[in-house]
Amino acid sequence: MERSEYEYNKIQESPAKMDSSIKYQLLIVACINIGQIIVGYSVGWSAPIIPKLQDNSTSPLPEPITDLQASWVGSLLYIGAMIGPYVTGILSNLIGRKPCLMIGGCLNILSYVLVITTKNVATVMVLRVMSGLGMGITTVCNLVYVGEIASTHIRGILLTSTGIVGITGTLIVYAVVPYVSYVETGYIALAVSIAHVVGLFFVPESPVYYAMKGHEIKAAKTLNLLGRSADLSKILETFAQKKGVASSKIKDWIEIFTIKSNRMSLFITFTLGSLQQTSGVAVVLFFATTIFQLAGSTIRPDLATIIIGVTRLVSSIIAPTFVERSGRKILLLISMAACALSLAILGLYFYLDRIQSAAVESIGWLPLVALIVYFFSYEAGFGTIPNAIVGEMFRANVRSNGSALAITLTWLVGFGLTASFTTMIEVLGGDVTFWIFGSTCVVAFFFTYFLVPETKGKTLNEIQEMMS
């Protein structure tokens, strides 16, 4: 039998209790973020693996893969990734956020078991789709879950931390994978994936899910552990109208488009995500080694990718440092402007190379410098803050579905871009290709300036009121 709200409000947090609760939130997010290491690992895996698969001495396959097959190895990750969020959208409101996290973790384990047992190119294609599926479920569920358990004053920091840890996973790929065998890359990821699933046993279910299902006592107990008992009445009020009534899955999907705040949330998150993808980040991550080979850079490709990985990790720390101090919007604007400039410079290098300018020989270092500036700028804002914004948008009953729809539409753009990258280079040349990416950053700058709201210091309910 459920208790009255009077009984819930007896729970008071002392300063010591609040400090303990914040540490508990940090511990939960640490367990969650082990999965983000695998997300980053999966994203970067193809860059050093493609050269291995094209070399008979390092490939487990009977013959080297073709350039077309290489592009599919890079882009097929997006196929699974586009399906994953819908699994989250359906199951997270049905069985809970925590079981969805477990499903994503188990899929990651299975995909890297396939890496270890690879015998033919079909297996590589299947494991990339499966890896994408685990990545899609993990990414969306992490954003939804962290957004729901975090206290308002640290929510931005915890949400951006998921992006930072993902970058760490990619850095591990760049720093380690070039120097180990194909099969050993699977063992590394498998060990981390198992640690992720074990860690998930120690995290609680989201209090928002409990409230959604009418389990007020469980919601109250979880909020108390999180140091957020004061938020109980607001969370329960959100679902008061649905108490005793089975939630309509179709109605939840319809509300994404019929309620103004949800509609605006979808428009903003999808547009930001699409502009993020068309800035060329996925192309550079998936084909980093290939890009340096194409550019004829004097810096060794494997060394250049490690430098880029370190740059991404260091610069990504800027976002959580300032996101609750300066706000989301100003960081985005500065980041986008710097990305546009660095991509314009990279395009200029490819132009000089195409016209066989004598200057190219003396500036072989320029592609690396341009990409260092690009990634430093990108990860300081453009690469991490849109994910945090996704975790803050949408009403509670459609947050999983809305986040899934926004991210999968974004990844559809990313899939199209990565699948067509080699064609773009052949038809348009490296100069025009990277100038297009730079122009996208300019469009993103003006979109953010005029249409993206500032969410710093606002509760999830206040954000929805603002979007209305």
Helices, by number, come to 21
Point out poorly predicted stretches: 1-12
Please give the largest β-sheet: none
Mean pLDDT: 81
Q: Which strand-content bin applies to the residues? A: under 5%
How far is the first residue's CA from the last residue's CA? 36 Å
> Based on helices, strands and strand pairing, what is the structural class?
mainly alpha
Q: What order do the helices and strands follow?
A: HHHHHHHHHHHHHHHHHHHHH
User: In total, how many beta strands?
Assistant: 0
Q: Level of helix content? A: over 70%
The radius of gyration is: 22 Å
Query: What is the 3D form?
Result: globular
Descriptive report:
It is a single chain. The chain contains 21 helices and no strands. With 468 residues, the protein is an all-alpha fold. The radius of gyration is 22 Å and the shape is globular.
Output the keywords.
globular; mainly alpha; 21 helices; 468 residues
SSE inventory with pairings:
Layout: H1 5-8, H2 15-53, H3 67-91, H4 97-116, H5 121-149, H6 152-176, H7 182-200, H8 207-212, H9 216-225, H10 232-238, H11 249-258, H12 260-277, H13 281-286, H14 288-295, H15 301-316, H16 318-322, H17 328-354, H18 366-382, H19 385-392, H20 399-451, H21 460-467
